[in-house]
């Protein structure tokens, strides 16, 4: 694709995240993208959304939109249970995909999605915007370079509050609808942790339904061992009145901390040196990147570059699968009481096909 051509873009699903996340980012890069269509099963809603954002094409079916508009990029912002179908259909029509989290509700579904990709594109990228912020980029570089020494311990926390009304839609609060809090809420912070600490080795977990009348858990906790030797605790909750997202990584020479809720700025990160680190050395760890509130825009920029170059995006393929595999293994451990190693959930494992291993309600 020529760098002078605008990328013809369509969005499928016109709910909250489309309006507060995707469209503002697309408008910011309007010189590179042209939003040609919106799709929603609710005609009144898609018309209102299209009127608000000045979008010409309005459709109630993805198939009809793909045939009429031939988009280069399809943004999938529908409920999670239909992400795989929409992603595969768009890929088979020749469009790249940017899919909201969680991309799929099982490893089987995720692998079906990636099987529809082609070498050189189109590819399906997952919306994991937290790893693209300036703070994450800077501290990931410090960790990768060895400047902070070996990672030793970490804590990944997504403790939010969701009231009963949140779970009223039939697709929420069950493993076939939203996948439970670790998948529906914690996946962003979990992906950020994985992007910074690298491959994990094994996980032991517990999960409980402590407060809500739902079919999934509403709180889970896990201990993860990484290939580096680092140990991490991972906690996800939908029952925490004081909501926070937190990532802490303790290394040989420093403690890196991020505290925020849904988005962060550079000031939300700290890097505290140990008492043995020289002040001038620690001063060299300062973040040189411009401050920017994390959001979809930070990920959309490199995605556009990937599309133009025909290169696999960072959060596609194995890059998008890592968090899904860890969460799947977390639930397998919680349901079976066993420690689960990375790669243990193979195609003949019931947890490969369902997050609850077929134990829950349909």
Which strand order do you get reading across the main beta sheet?
13-12-11-7-10-9-8-14
CATH superfamily of the largest domain: Dihydrodipicolinate Reductase, domain 2
Oligomer: single chain
Please give the largest β-sheet: 8 strands, mixed
For the record, what CATH class of the largest domain applies?
Alpha Beta
By DSSP, the count of extended strands is 14
Structural class: alpha/beta
How far apart are the termini? 44 Å
**pLDDT average, as an integer?**
96
Percentage of residues in strands? 15-25%
Percent helix among the residues? 25-40%
Name the CATH architecture of the largest domain: 2-Layer Sandwich
- Overall geometry: globular
Q: CATH topology of the largest domain, what is it called?
A: Dihydrodipicolinate Reductase, domain 2
State the low-pLDDT regions, or none.
Answer: none
Radius of gyration in whole Å, from Cα? 20 Å
Total domains, how many?
2
Query: How large is the count of helical segments?
Result: 12
**Topology as a string of helices (H) and strands (E):** EHEHEHEHEHEHEHHEEEEEEHHHEH
């Amino acid at each position: 694709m020529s760098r002078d051509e605008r990328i013809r873009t369509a969005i499928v699903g016109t709910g909250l995240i489309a309006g507060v996340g995707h469209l503002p980012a697309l408008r910011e890069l309007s010189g590179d993208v042209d939003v040609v269509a919106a799709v929603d099963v609710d005609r009144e809603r898609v018309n209102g959304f299209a009127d608000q954002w000045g979008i010409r094409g309005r459709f109630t079916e993805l198939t009809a939109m793909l045939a009429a508009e031939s988009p280069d990029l399809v943004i999938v912002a529908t409920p999670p249970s239909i992400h795989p179908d929409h992603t595969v259909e768009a890929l088979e029509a020749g469009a790249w995909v940017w899919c909201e989290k969680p991309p799929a509700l099982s490893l089987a579904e995720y692998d079906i999605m990636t099987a529809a990709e082609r070498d050189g594109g189109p590819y399906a990228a997952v919306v994991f915007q937290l790893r693209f912020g300036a703070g994450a980029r800077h501290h990931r570089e410090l960790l990768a370079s060895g400047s902070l020494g070996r990672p030793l311990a970490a804590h990944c926390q997504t403790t939010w509050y969701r009231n009963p009304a949140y779970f009223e839609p039939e697709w929420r609060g069950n493993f076939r609808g939203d996948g439970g809090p670790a998948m529906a809420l914690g996946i962003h912070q979990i992906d950020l942790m994985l992007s910074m600490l690298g491959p994990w080795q094994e996980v032991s977990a517990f999960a409980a339904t402590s407060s809500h009348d739902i079919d999934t858990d509403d709180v889970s906790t896990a201990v993860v061992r990484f290939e580096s030797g680092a140990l991490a605790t991972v906690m996800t909750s939908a029952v925490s009145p004081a909501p926070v997202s937190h990532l802490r990584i303790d290394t040989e020479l420093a403690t890196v901390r991020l505290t925020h809720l849904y988005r962060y700025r550079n000031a939300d990160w700290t890097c505290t040196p140990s008492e043995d680190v020289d002040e001038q050395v620690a001063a060299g760890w300062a973040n040189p990147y411009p401050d920017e509130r994390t959001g979809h825009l930070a990920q959309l920029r490199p995605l556009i570059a990937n599309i133009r170059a025909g290169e696999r995006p960072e959060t596609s393929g194995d890059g998008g699968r890592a968090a899904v595999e860890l969460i799947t293994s977390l639930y397998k451990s919680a349901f079976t009481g066993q420690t689960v190693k990375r790669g243990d959930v193979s195609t003949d494992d019931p947890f490969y096909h369902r997050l609850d291993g077929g134990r829950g309600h349909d």
